[in-house]
Design a protein that fits this description.
Elements lengths: L1 E3 L5 H12 L4 E5 L4 H5 L2 E3 L8 H5 L4 E4 L12 H11 L3 E7 L9 H10 L4 E7 L11 H7 L1 E3 L6 E2 L4 H13 L6 E5 L5 E2 H12 L4 E3 L3 H10 L4 H15 L9 H6 L6 H8 L6
Parallel strand pairs: 1-2, 1-4, 2-3, 4-5, 5-6, 6-9, 7-11
Antiparallel strand pairs: 8-10
Helix pairs in contact: 1-7, 8-12, 9-10
Length: 279
């Protein structure tokens, strides 16, 4: 049995789909599952409600774990879940982390990594660069409505990676031998700065998209005006600051090596999903 957290999110939903299509026994943790989802072996699960951990983890051997974006205090949420997983007999956790997390002690992802390393459970860290999907989700509204990208990344480059490639690697790690106690750095095949991303979007959509790089204070104020919590906004600012200082520009071959094919390019992704910014 494989348990998938974040099963309705960008990465988790694809992990769930790929596991089901490969005939794995899988259970999805969903905060408020529908009748249809329950019929598909989903279960009520809330990372802030430890009472939901026991039923969700019963009989589980491996788990895909991700930090919900709104969760910043991992000691109160993810640590108890890891403890419950160990007590329940889970013997491998594949954790969706952040590229460069091993050098970023202040990000929640690194705190989870360290806790897992000392938990006694076998782990696999997927240290992913920025998702291409973020241009649809986190930045979709500003691109569609304001025709701009607003992040404090300066002219730093980012090795954007397709979330579907991350999910495919996660499934390999969950279902194949040889991935225990490993860390993979998952990136696309090139690093691009945000002015280039804006130019590629402009070319694909047929109208100009402008990249604006606000100060950290302006960025935090903007995110708070959108209803983002203070903790979540600070994590976002910290992550974009790593890009500003060149810490997100590293390109690796881990995706190609693990999947046996090149990673998706940003140009290909934009062409495939262009309707998302036109609706």
């Amino acid at each position: 049995m494989i348990f998938v957290t974040g099963a309705t999110g960008t990465i988790g939903a694809e992990v769930l789909y790929l596991l089901k299509t490969s005939d794995q026994v899988v259970r999805a943790g969903i905060r408020q599952p529908t009748v249809a989802q329950l019929a598909e072996n989903a279960i009520a699960f809330d990372i802030t409600q430890p009472a939901s951990f026991g039923p969700a983890l019963a009989g589980v051997e491996r788990m895909f774990l991700m930090r919900p974006p709104a969760v910043t205090n991992v000691a109160e949420t993810l640590f108890p879940l890891i403890d419950a997983a160990k007590a329940s007999g889970v013997h491998q956790i594949v954790f969706l982390s952040l590229l460069g997390a091993e050098k970023l002690s202040f990000v929640p992802h690194r705190k989870v990594e360290i806790y897992l390393q000392h938990s006694g459970i076998d782990y696999t860290f997927l240290r992913a660069s920025f998702f291409m999907q973020n241009l649809q989700t986190a930045h979709g509204a500003e691109i569609r409505q304001r025709r701009e990208i607003l992040v404090p990344a300066g002219n730093g480059k980012t090795s954007f990676v397709d979330g579907n490639d991350i999910a495919a690697v996660a499934v390999r790690a969950l279902t194949e031998d040889g991935h225990r106690n490993q860390a993979y750095d998952l990136t696309g095949s090139e690093a691009l700065d945000y002015p280039t991303v804006a130019a590629l979007l402009s070319l694909e959509l047929g109208y100009p998209i402008v990249y604006r790089h606000p100060s950290l204070r302006s960025f935090l104020s903007y995110q708070r005006s959108r209803g983002v919590t203070a903790g979540q906004a600070l994590v976002m600012a910290a992550i974009y600051t790593t890009a500003r200082f060149g810490m997100a520009a590293r390109v690796t071959n881990d995706v190609a090596r693990l999947l046996g094919r090149p990673p998706q390019s940003l140009q290909g992704y934009l062409a495939q999903h262009r309707q998302a910014w036109l609706d």
